[in-house]
Design goal:
Quinone Oxidoreductase, Chain A, domain 1, about 25% strand, globular, binds NADP nicotinamide-adenine-dinucleotide phosphate, NADP-dependent oxidoreductase
Length: about 350
């Protein structure tokens, strides 16, 4: 692909069930021109995220659906290459909600500068960005882990899960991860310090494995995936358990309403709290979360990994990989060199 033209990825049909590469197309258009108070931004990295699957359906949610034959949008890190705003200089690296394309025009107040001295710029889409804030507030504000408690995390080796486990360890909890490959299990235990982890794709009895891993039950279940994995974890909750509902990725491609155990009796008897949350509800506390996470990274208390696919044209493939578990840590697409 020629980078001097503007290649753009469009959603051309709404996925039925699991998305495929046929739902996307790449086109070439001209490079847009900025007007007053606008910037021309060259895309360096873009983020693919599970929530985008919901936006591919034609239904209202907390965020509107993507429109067919329009450029997909999401978190983007880019370099300002032309500015008509006195607040930005050519060469500034910025974060914004922009298109899956080589070049975007954005209003100056739509993007914010990234401090490259704080941490590598890619962290603005991961540990110091939306997924990091999800882990920080979802676990600490809703889960409220205490010393000696048992915390179980599904989707444990992903962008959010890998951080939740480390935060829980910092709070003195026993941490059990659930993930989909032996390599991920090794990563969680040997590199991130999880107490143990279960490969849900190879175990013949996840219920039994969980019971063995959590002899005192589950005080906090940080739910990233939903479905039968969550059914198994919820059967083990303790008195006063907290269950932050972060995501339900195992259900995002379902064509029919999923039916599972009726868990209200379990919640009632255990006086447990199950609470859905969206990271956007914590926007006014992001500064706190980012400062704290940045400090913990500097001190070596929080580690992170990024799975980087090269090339704008591979963005759909990277997105699809979220559903087959191709990523360990935050999935990014590198579009151009800085
Ligand atoms: N509430 C919020 O504000 C908020 C914000 C960000 C993210 N989220 C949610 O948090 C969850 C994790 O997001 P993320 O960005 O950190 O993604 P991620 O975990 O980096 O990537 C998705 C992972 O989900 C796992 N997965 C895919 N299909 C699965 C299935 N059928 N059953 C079990 N696991 C499956 C895969 O790992 P395996 O190899 O382990 O299968 C995959 O790597 C998602 O549900 C997302 O929607 C919520």
């Amino acid at each position: 692909m020629n980078e001097a033209t503007n290649n753009q990825i469009l959603l051309t049909s709404r996925p039925v069930g699991t998305p495929t590469s046929n739902n996307f197309a790449i086109i070439t258009s001209s490079i847009p021109q900025p007007n007053d108070n606008q910037l021309l931004i060259r895309t360096l990295y873009l983020s693919v995220d599970p929530y985008m699957r919901g936006r591919m359906n034609n239904q209202e949610s907390y965020i509107p659906p993507f429109q067919l034959n329009e450029v997909l949008t999401g978190g983007v890190i880019g370099e300002v290459i032309e500015t008509k705003s006195s607040d930005f200089q050519v060469g500034d690296v910025v974060l914004g909600h922009l298109g899956w394309q080589n070049y975007s025009v954005a209003d100056a107040n739509q993007v914010k500068k990234i401090d490259a001295d704080l941490a590598p710029i890619t962290t603005a889409l991961g540990v110091l960005g939306m997924p990091g804030m999800t882990a920080y507030f979802g676990l600490l504000d809703i889960g409220q882990p205490q010393e000696g408690e048992t915390v179980v995390i599904s989707g444990a080796a992903g962008a959010v899960g890998m951080l939740v486990g480390q935060l829980a360890k910092m709070k003195g909890a026993r941490v059990v991860g659930i993930a989909g490959s032996d390599e991920k299990i090794r990563y969680l235990i040997e590199e991130l310090g999880f107490d143990t982890a279960i490969n849900y794709k190879t175990t013949s009895n996840i219920q039994l494995e969980l019971a063995k891993a959590c002899p005192n039950g589950v005080d906090i279940y940080f739910d990233n995936v939903g479905g039968t994995i969550s059914d198994a974890v919820l059967s083990l909750i303790t008195q006063g358990a907290r269950i932050p509902i972060c995501g339900q990725i195992s259900l995002y491609n379902s064509e029919k309403q999923d039916v599972g155990p009726r868990i209200q009796v379990q919640l009632l008897r255990k006086m447990a709290t199950m609470k859905g949350f969206l990271v956007g509800q914590y926007t006014d506390r992001y500064e706190e979360g980012m400062t704290q996470m940045a400090q913990w990274i500097k001190e070596g208390k929080i580690k992170y990994s990024e799975n980087i696919v090269e090339g704008l044209e591979n963005a759909p493939k990277a997105f699809l990989g979220l559903f087959s578990g191709d990523n360990t840590g935050k999935q990014l697409v590198k579009v151009a060199d800085c």
